[in-house]
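Weekly modeling sync, notes
Attendees: S.R. (lead), two postdocs, one rotation student

Agenda item 3: backlog of single-chain predictions. S.R. asked that every request posted to the team notebook include the full sequence so nobody has to chase files. The rotation student volunteered to paste the first one in as an example of the format we agreed on. Action items at the bottom.

Example entry:
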Amino acid sequence: MGDLHRQPTTPIARKNYLCSACECIIEKGEEHKQQEGYFDGRAYRNRFHFECWHELMGDANGNFEFYPGDIEPPKRLIEV
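Predicted structure, as returned to the notebook:
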């Protein structure tokens, strides 16, 4: 089975979600990145804070792998 990764979108959260990268809450009403598709034959939908998305993307040109919780939460969430 092939993989399919749709283009990321920028929705506004209708409820609280967990960021797939840092596992911290994306608050209701917050704009964030969402990507969905199929990986290893299984459907997925990931949501990310903008800061986490940019850290993951780096120089990856859209191809990246991560484990949930790999990334430190954005500073704006820690300094509260």
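Discussion: group reviewed the output briefly. The mean pLDDT is 87.
Action items: rotation student to repeat for the remaining queue; S.R. to check formatting next week.
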